[in-house]
Each structure stands twice: as C-alpha cells, then as structure tokens.
Specification:
Number of helices: 9
Strand order of the largest sheet: 4-5-3-2-6-7-1-8
Helix content: 40-55%
Number of strands: 8
Radius of gyration: 18 Å
Shape: globular
Strand content: 25-35%
C-alpha cells in the first residue's frame, strides 16, 4: 500500500536559502498543476507576502537559479517561471530515483515543506538514509496511508480532498459565495492564494477522474 509523508528540509540543503532568509515574510508554493517535461522541475512558483519586487531581485541572484521571469502577477502574488541549474535538477531527479513522487512543495523562512508519496512504506527509510549520507536531512513530520475511498477512487491527494470538502462546507462554491479564498485559506491554515490553487487542482483532478473517463476511453 502506498504511503504519503510530510517532510521538512532546511533551505540551505535544498534551494533559495539566502532569498528566503532575507525575506522571512515571503512564502513560496510550487504550482504542480503546470504541465512540463520530465527534464524540468518546479518550473512555476507562486510567491506571496512581503515585497515581491525585492524578492524577485533576490530570486535572480540565487545560486540555484539560471533564469527567472514573471509569468503572472496580481497585487499580492506573483507566479515566477524558473529554470534551475543542473545541480538542483539532479537533486530532484535523485529524489525521484529513490521512489519519491513529489505531490506538493512550499517554503518560508529557512525551511521547505514537501509532501511525498512512496509506493511502499519501506521506501521511506531508504530514501532518508540515502539523503542523510549526502548531507541532506529530510525530517518526517507525518506519514499516512491514503485510505479514504473517495481519495483513492478519484486520485485526490489528502490536501486536495480536505480543501474541496472544506470549501463545500464553507459555501465557497455557493452563489453568492459564502466564503472568500482568504477565509477558506484561514480554515486550511494556508494563504488565500494557496487555498484557491489547491481547490483548482483538486477540482481538475476530480472532474478528470470522475467525469471524463468515458471520453478518454473513446480516444484510446
């Protein structure tokens, strides 16, 4: 049975340590809905909080970043298009080679938080042991088996399922809307932008796996 784990890793052992340290009020979240080739990793990052222009400058000076451009921009958030340097791409591919499927990634201050899926629980230990040998410590915050039947049936991550269920209960989908994205984020203990992105990803997964199966079958 597969297992999902929440891990933390110091930014100094991962990426963007200096940029995050100089902007402690800033939060980063990888946009996992973006389509990209297997050779690309985390091509789009959402940034919220603090001085976005100043953080963009810090972004450009980060050792792991080759190029950066603004893909989208609002008053309180920006999506950056990133091309990472080869060592960071090799780190991500090494994680994948050691059986970790990266479901979500975010960072603030001096720490990255990662949600990883493994096909078997024993793979978690070998994953941690490998990276401890390389000087990178992935700390486990929690592990669980995705046992909810709806989660398994429709391919939702635990966070996507929780976000969609919370959004329905809060009236987020009602007309008129009973809760804003900011209020939904407060219920989920994340930013309003992150809550909106999570609901979008979960909704896309739910529709794809619940409503479009026949269409995909006809196209095969």
């Amino acid at each position: 049975m597969s297992v999902i784990g929440d891990f933390t890793v110091p930014a100094a052992s991962f990426a963007l340590a200096d940029a995050l340290a100089s902007h402690p009020e800033t939060r980063i979240e990888a946009d996992r809905q973006a389509t990209h080739s297997p050779r690309e990793v985390f091509p789009f990052l959402w940034v919220t909080g603090g001085d976005l222009d100043a953080f963009e400058s810090a972004f450009r000076d980060a050792p792991a970043v080759e190029t950066v451009s603004v893909a989208e921009r609002t008053d309180d958030a920006a999506m950056f298009r990133i091309v990472w340097d080869e060592p960071f791409q090799e780190l991500i591919h090494d994680m994948i080679d050691h059986h970790a499927s990266i479901l979500e990634a975010s960072a603030s201050e001096d720490t990255w938080s990662l949600r990883l899926r493994f096909a078997e629980e024993r793979m978690v230990s070998s994953f941690r042991e490998h990276f401890e040998e390389t000087g990178r410590r992935f700390e486990v915050r929690s592990l669980w088996h995705p046992s909810d039947p709806h989660q398994r049936e429709y391919g939702l991550t635990a966070e996507q399922y929780d976000a969609l269920a919370t959004a329905v209960r809060a009236g987020y989908f009602d007309v008129p809307r009973g809760a804003s994205a900011t209020e939904l984020g407060e219920r989920l203990d994340i930013s309003g932008n992150a809550a909106s992105q999570r609901v979008r990803r979960g909704s896309a997964t739910l529709v794809r796996n619940a409503l479009l199966l026949d269409e995909e079958a006809e196209g095969t």
